[in-house]
């Protein structure tokens, strides 16, 4: 108990009173451990690793309302950046598209009214009680169906304990994926849907995706984007003609495959094949350098003032390293405890370099030099509160956490969190996955 009493207070956005009454008793009596074990027995992060699950977290009503408004305004700003990318050379310079995709993005400029159909926004809670947006996933955001599955499981237990008068968010609906994809695809035929992934690559949740769609009578198949053929009118793969797909391919994997994807890209850009976020919204919206645009006041006049003002305080100082002055680079190199450097198009924490974690000054300076050469993002480091030990299954102190919010068709669909002893909070590393009840 001494460890729990000495635990620092949680982020003020969490409903500590509800957690104390509803969750902590389940941790103490072992019911939480039993439910986690049953979930981990069925949910797989990949074929070799169960999804490590933690207890649910709940936002206060006030924090829930603020998070919803913030996430939806940020989605509108990202959509605006996607649109501006085709028109504004300054935006294209900051976002620094890889050469392999330059022609594809130029061809996509003819696509009118680009939409960001789906995105996940990753926040870090600050010690002062506010939230910071650290990145966006508009490519193939993970954890969506797992958030719904784990929330439903915990809700069943909490309702039995008379502790769940909780708002049900769309992600908790077992048919959410089908409903959302049908709305996003519009009038396109969904009798057959392709789930695109790399051979031997990330298949996170693809089995769950297929299960939802098959319940609705859809013929679902998995394929690599390189399997797609396009005759100018119809996309075909594995002997099937189809009009709708879902792309679950990491950015770096896609770049490596790009020389073999002419038919796939052309079918998407022509509109014959619909995949959520298309190509421009995917590549531009997922780029971490969008935060460099939103952080720089020189570009404020490009955005709707109300949205920009509502989000401004949640954007950490962020710049493209290649556009920093020599003086600024010297400060970043010298004061490494104040900065984080990120590859703009990488995932699962692989391209994140935290100055505090650098083994030496020389290692950090090498990271800065590479980032300045390759157009990486530099951000201010954000110190975060930790979870109370009573909210961790092992009673561990010093557990870092984030908050991720899913926006689908411009509206918040749900949330989840990750926790970890490491400063990189990622389930691909040592993290745990927490459903979040969002009022």
List keywords for this structure.
single chain; 439 residues; alpha+beta; Dna Ligase, domain 1; 3 domains; 4-stranded antiparallel beta sheet; globular
Please, could you describe this protein's structure?
By secondary structure, this protein is of the alpha+beta class. The protein has 3 domains: 1-168 and 286-316 and 382-439, no CATH class; 187-273, no CATH class; 317-380, Dna Ligase, domain 1. The chain has helices at residues 2-5, 16-28, 31-42, 61-85, 89-95, 99-108, 144-160, 176-185, 206-215, 251-257, 262-270, 280-285, 290-295, 305-312, 326-334, 361-374, and strands spanning 44-46, 49-50, 57-58, 118-125, 131-137, 192-196, 219-223, 229-230, 235-237, 240-242, 244-247, 318-320, 339-342, 352-354, 377-380, 400-401, 403-408, 411-420, 432-437. Strands 3, 4, 5, 16, 17, 18 and 19 form a 7-stranded mixed beta sheet that branches. A 4-stranded antiparallel beta sheet has the order 12-15-13-14. It has a 3-stranded parallel beta sheet with strand order 7-6-11, with helices on one face. Helix 4 (61-85) packs across helix 14 (305-312) and helix 15 (326-334) runs antiparallel to helix 16 (361-374). The longest helix is centred in the first third of the chain and has 25 residues, at 61-85. The protein is globular and about 60 Å long.
Binned strand content: 15-25%
Helix content class? 25-40%
Oligomer: single chain
Mean pLDDT: 91
The structure class reads: alpha+beta
Shape: globular
Tell me the number of structural domains.
3
End-to-end C-alpha gap = 31 Å
Number of strands: 19
Uncertain spans, ≥5 residues at pLDDT below 50?
1-6
Give the radius of gyration.
22 Å
Count of alpha/pi helices: 16
Tell me about the biggest sheet? 7 strands, mixed
């Amino acid at each position: 108990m001494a460890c729990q009493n000495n635990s620092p207070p949680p982020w003020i956005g969490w409903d500590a009173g509800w957690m104390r009454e509803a969750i902590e008793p389940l941790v103490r009596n072992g019911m939480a451990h039993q439910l986690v074990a049953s979930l981990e027995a069925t949910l797989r992060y990949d074929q070799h690793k169960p999804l490590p699950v933690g207890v649910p977290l709940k936002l206060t009503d006030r924090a829930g309302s603020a998070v919803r408004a913030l996430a939806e305004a940020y989605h509108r700003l990202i959509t605006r950046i996607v649109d501006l990318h085709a028109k504004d050379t300054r935006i294209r310079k900051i976002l620094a598209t890889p050469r392999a995709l330059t022609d594809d993005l130029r061809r996509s400029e003819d696509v009118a009214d680009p939409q960001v159909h789906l995105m996940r926004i990753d926040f870090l809670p600050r010690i002062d009680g506010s939230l910071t947006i650290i990145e966006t996933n508009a490519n193939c955001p993970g954890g969506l169906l797992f958030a719904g599955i784990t929330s439903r499981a915990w809700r069943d237990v909490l309702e039995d304990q008379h502790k769940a008068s909780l708002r049900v968010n769309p992600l908790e609906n077992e048919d959410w994926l089908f409903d959302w994809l049908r709305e996003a695809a519009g009038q396109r035929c969904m009798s057959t849907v392709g789930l695109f992934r790399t051979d031997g690559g990330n298949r996170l949740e693809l089995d769950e995706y297929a299960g939802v769609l098959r319940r609705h009578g859809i013929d679902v198949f998995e394929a690599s984007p390189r399997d797609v053929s396009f005759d100018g009118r119809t996309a075909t793969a594995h002997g099937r003609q189809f009009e709708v797909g879902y792309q679950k391919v990491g950015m770096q994997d896609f770049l490596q495959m790009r020389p073999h994807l002419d038919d796939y890209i052309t079918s998407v850009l022509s509109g014959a094949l619909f995949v959520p976020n298309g190509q421009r919204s995917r590549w531009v919206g997922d780029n971490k350098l969008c935060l460099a645009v939103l952080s720089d006041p020189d570009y404020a006049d490009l955005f709707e003032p109300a949205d920009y003002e509502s989000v401004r305080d949640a954007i950490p100082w962020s710049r493209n390293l290649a556009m920093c002055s020599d003086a600024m680079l010297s400060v970043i190199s010298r004061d490494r405890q104040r900065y984080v450097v990120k590859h703009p198009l990488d995932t699962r924490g692989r391209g994140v370099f935290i100055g505090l974690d650098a083994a030496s000054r020389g290692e950090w300076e090498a990271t800065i030099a590479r980032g300045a050469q390759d157009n990486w993002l530099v951000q201010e480091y954000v110190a975060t509160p930790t979870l109370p030990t009573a909210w961790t299954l092992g009673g561990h102190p010093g557990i870092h956490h984030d908050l991720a919010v899913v926006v689908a068709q411009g509206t918040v669909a749900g949330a989840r969190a990750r926790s970890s002893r490491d400063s990189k909070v990622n389930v691909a590393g040592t993290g745990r996955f927490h459903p979040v009840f969002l009022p």
